[in-house]
Design a protein that fits this description.
The complex is a heterodimer of chains A (81) and B (237). With 81 residues, chain A is α+β, with helices and mostly antiparallel strands. Chain A has helices spanning 16-27, 52-67, and strands spanning 2-9, 40-45, 73-80. Helix content of chain B is 24%, strand content 24%. The mean pLDDT of chain B is 97. In chain B, the strands form two sheets. Chain B has a nine-stranded mixed beta sheet, with helices on both faces. Classes of the chains: A alpha+beta (81), B alpha/beta (237).
């Protein structure tokens, strides 16, 4: 069992890395790319038998307190078997 | 005056801060990140460096260190706290200061002298800074110093005069060209609403002796020392 946490910079936050990647894609000829946001992906291993509901609750709390910074980032959490 | 300088794994300006304060005639002692108490001190400096190797986000892990609980209590009781560079990032992560510091706009590490305009002289961190319109010159050394806060927070900072320093040019003009990292409103340093906690990306600790090219950092540290002295004499009276 694991949790997948995707963290991305908020829309209002400047993301120079994403902009550089988007420019590179354009120069390479990949048409139709209108924007790139570079974020983080965390894969969190959970002990077998962990309650998905408990893990979801605990990790949402951890994501808000620590794993993401709500001032600058959004996150998406998913618990998978 | 007794200063506590926090020491986290990969702090690297802790010794600079101790040295700078001793040069200024103050006492300084290191406090280890696992300590739960600051001891008998008058002020705290959270120094620069790369605490915990900047894992996850700059300052994100340091802010949960036991010593930071003590710093929060110290700040709640009105104690003076200054965060420099990584220390500023830690104070923002800890919620002791609003906003966040993100990757420099040009994705590059900047190590250079910058000019700072002081935007509020009526604080414990700025009262001794020259007021003749000439900006102070202090070095920066960071890759993640771009100050960000949402629009309502920026408005509050402005209305409350919490913006203490802005990047400017040699004439003191706050211009886009003088902004080394893309900080909103050229913000180099801010204070909390009570003005007992402040943070800045530039390093006053590296600017207290002429041999280093500028002594302008002295006026920030001497402001703090003067504020502590006047608090002491007020308490004794």
């Amino acid at each position: 069992m694991k949790a997948k946490l995707v963290i991305t910079p908020k829309k209002a936050v400047l993301d120079p890395q994403g902009k550089t990647v988007a420019n590179a894609l354009e120069h390479m000829g990949y048409a139709g790319v209108t924007g790139v946001r570079v974020g983080k992906y965390l894969e969190i291993d959970l002990a077998p038998g962990t309650s998905a509901a408990d893990a979801d609750k605990a990790l949402h709390e951890a994501a808000r307190r620590f794993l993401s910074n709500p001032v600058i980032e959004d996150y998406r959490l998913e618990i998978v078997e | 005056m007794r200063f506590a300088i926090l020491q986290f794994p990969a702090s690297n300006c802790d010794q600079d801060c101790v040295h700078a304060l001793r040069v200024m005639g103050a006492q300084a002692k290191m406090v280890w990140h696992k300590d739960t108490s600051l001891g008998e001190v008058d002020a705290v400096i959270v120094p620069g460096g790369f605490s915990y190797g900047d894992a996850l986000r700059c300052g994100a892990i340091a802010r949960f260190s036991p010593v930071m609980q003590a710093v929060s209590r110290f700040a709640e009781n009105g104690g003076l706290v200054l965060g420099i560079c990584n220390g500023f990032q830690i104070l923002c992560e800890a919620g002791l200061l609003p906003g966040a510091l993100i990757r420099n706009r040009d994705l590059r590490f900047h190590c250079e002298q910058v000019f700072l305009k002081t935007a509020n002289f009526d604080t414990a961190f700025t009262s001794g800074i020259r007021r003749d319109g000439v900006p102070i010159r202090i070095p920066i050394a960071h890759g993640e110093g771009c100050y960000f806060a949402d629009a309502p927070t920026l408005e509050r900072l402005q209305a409350g005069r919490q913006i203490l320093w802005q990047y400017c040019d040699a004439s003191g003009a706050v211009t886009e060209a003088a902004n080394p990292n893309g900080s909103l409103m050229n913000i180099a340093g801010i204070a909390n609403a009570r003005f007992n906690v402040a943070g800045l990306m530039p390093h006053p600790d590296r600017a207290v002796e002429g041999i280093l090219g500028t002594e302008d950092g002295r006026s920030i540290l001497s402001s703090m020392i003067a504020a502590l002295e006047s608090r002491k004499s007020a308490a004794a009276a």
